[in-house]
Hints:
The chain is an alpha/beta fold. The chain folds into 2 domains: 8-233, P-loop containing nucleotide triphosphate hydrolases (Rossmann fold), CATH 3.40.50; 238-306, Alpha-Beta Plaits. It is built from 12 helices and 14 strands. The strands form 3 sheets. It has a 6-stranded mixed sheet, sandwiched between helices. It has a 4-stranded antiparallel sheet with strand order 2-1-4-5, covered by helices on one side. A 4-stranded antiparallel sheet has the order 12-13-11-14, with helices on both faces. The two termini are 41 Å apart.
Amino acid sequence: MYDIHSRTHAITEAAIHARGLHKSFGGTHVLTGVDLTVPPGTLQALLGPNGSGKTTTVRILTTLLAPDRGTAIVGGHDVTRESAAVRRSIGLTAQQATVDGLLTGRENLELFAGLYHLGRREARRRAAELLERFDLAAAADRRAATYSGGMRRRLDLAASMVAAPRILFLDEPTTGLDPRSRAELWSVIRELLAAGTTILLTTQYLEEADHLADRIAVIHTGRVVADDTPAALKRQVGSERLILRLAHAADLPRAAATLPPGDAAPHLDPDARELTLAVQSPDHLRHTLDLLHRAGIPIAQVELRTPTLDDVFFALTATTPPLTPATP
């Protein structure tokens, strides 16, 4: 039986709760009904192709944009009617670094502390604490322009934590970082999560979401098309993935057309000459290879592996039509 009181309690307790978010720009639908619920103290990853609506969703949830329709509650406050209260409870690390390269790391953090109306003594104390926490103490009095990319992103993240927010939004925080810097930032994010911070992370790196997220929501053409744990999402695309490297890339379309009509559409990679599809059973595997053999399609290499988030991503975003102009 549906319990409206339980549902209302769950919404109240959620750190982030959005329902039916719509947003259009220049006559084009960008969000077409985003639903999202993030429990306190968890990390929710938001994945999607470029232009799918990830950043627009974050901008609405952080009060930087108003939705055309729909509602969003962040930290117990409505993003439209109580935007000031929302901003007091959140931190945001945007895609572009917000630190001032002409200021030192310490000066940047003290500047942000002033924006949050912390007193001078408290600003100095908080800056010193964050510089130590984010492994920047040795470079505290160097200008941020001299920092490496990883150091600047850590400083940017530290700036978003000046007011000790309960909820943190990270919009592609590791884009452009080298593997070592990315791993260092992952460690910082895990520490914040362990301390009870709720985190909404958008990322282009599926491996990042797999390593960090409690749940992953896949957004495509303006709406959430899946939302579950990483393990559950992988199970949705089949028990194993069959990767066939063909002898000739030109055979890929014919190979895809040879597969049984009931099979999910395979992913084709012309550059690698590869066709990837879900395999449901050993009989399915044998039948697929037999069909390609009888069609005279030469196969150079066969690989069988368990599903990854790449498989989930391709499966969920390959079948939905692209964004279309809004009707007047």
